[in-house]
Amino acid sequence: MRFKSWRQSRPLWGSVITIISGLMILWVPLNLYLSTFLPGSIAVIGLLFGGLITMIGLLALFFPQSAKILGIFTMFLSVLSVIGALGGFLVGTIFGLIGGSALIAWRMGSTDPDEDDSVHVTEDPVRAG
């Protein structure tokens, strides 16, 4: 019950997918580490973008109120990661777009269990005529 209330108070699945995307994007330049740190190599951009996307996924877990802007950054960095890390062979880019979309679409639910979505009419209707 405590995990369920914790999970509902933050964008868990968007954050998890974003973290997986960042790790996939990091995987390509880490496996090419001999050429990553050569002067003029753009694989360093893959390290930077993969690390930033992983950090964004973690930040979305701890600061759920800023999930929308973090989702926008995730989508932006995921598309740009194609330049330096091939976007984790494009699978990381696709996961980043899905995770960013989930972060943007997430909204904080009600914490009050008695509150429901029904509309209550508090005033009498105006009599016409």
Automatic annotation (TrEMBL):
One Pfam family name from the record?
DUF6114
Q: Where are the transmembrane segments?
A: 12-30, 42-63, 75-106
Give the source's domain of life in one word: Bacteria
Q: Which UniProt keywords apply?
A: Membrane, Transmembrane, Transmembrane helix
Q: Write down the InterPro entries for this protein, in alphabetical order.
A: DUF6114
Protein name (record): Uncharacterized protein
Source organism of this protein record: Falsibacillus albus
The major lineage groups are: Bacteria, Bacillati, Bacillota, Bacilli, Bacillales
